[in-house]
Design brief:
Elements lengths: L8 H5 L7 E4 L9 H9 L5 E5 L3 H8 L3 E6 L11 H8 L4 E4 L2 H13 L3 E4 L15 H7 L12 E4 L7 E6 L3 E12 L4 E2 L7 H4 L3 E12 L1 H5 L14 E4 L17 H10 L3 H11 L6 H8 L1 H5 L19
Length: about 325
Amino acid sequence: MKKSKVVSLTEAMQEVKDGDCIVLGGVVEDRRPMGAAYELIRQGKKNLILLAECSLAEDVLVGAGCVVGYRGTYSAIGAFGISPSTKRSIEAGKIVVDDIGHTDVCLGALAAMAGSPFIATRTTFGTDVLNPAYDNVAKIRNLARNPKTLPAKKYVLMEDPFYGTGTVQLHPAMRIDVLIIHVQYVGEDGTVRIDGSLVFDHFAAHAARKVIITAEQVVPEEYLRRDPNRNQIPCTSVDMVVELPWGAHPGQLLNFYDMDIPFLTEYVGKARTEEGFREWADSWVFGVKDHMEYLDKLGASRLEKIRALPPFGYRPRMRGGSK
């Protein structure tokens, strides 16, 4: 009898080890695994290395002192501004940063999916991404629990040997210790269905040693296989499944709920200072024992105000406030 992939959030997050290189799926404030990030903080994870971006989900981990390194691109929470905890930590020298290009993040994941150790690109030519003075990959590699998860070199330049078009950058494939993605639906065996933007999660799933899916609903595999063209990640690539309703709050999830703008505004305001972040975390992370208590604290009326309405897939609102 095969072991069920459906586990509790607590059990799933125990798979993340101190010093792991992790990717949190989604982008900015859309489809972020916030419930998983809160649980990582409660479990006291340390020395994590973030890959890809440092936005909403990552910023709370940085603020809680769970992170020592960040290798990726984009450090902001959309319209809410620069990621406040990340900004503070970089300025204080608490985390090491190695910048790579937006497209190169996606290309690195694509190379991993294709089984290639690298991919040729020119997307960051003319930028400081290729400036040796800002190359910190070796520093971050030395901080990782498994240094081989990160490349030995940031990039290699070479001449195009096929068409003679000039210099190209060889960009290493992405490797990930643990990938955590929040989605709308996942099957009991791990088949994933994502509504809206996939970002590069369907590539990254093939770059990770372990893939954990949190979802609004765990559904029978038979239901997902009725329309296989709408599924993006195969069950064979998924290790664990967690049912976690409202698991992307305070971010948005297409067809389920919109952003909780007052919550995000409060977070960004408080997280500008270390004391403010601690106050926020004491209330919303450590002040509840688990995700269900978090939802109870938010309250049904607050959650109903952001529930998505058909046919929009989000909650229509007037400019600058709730409708």
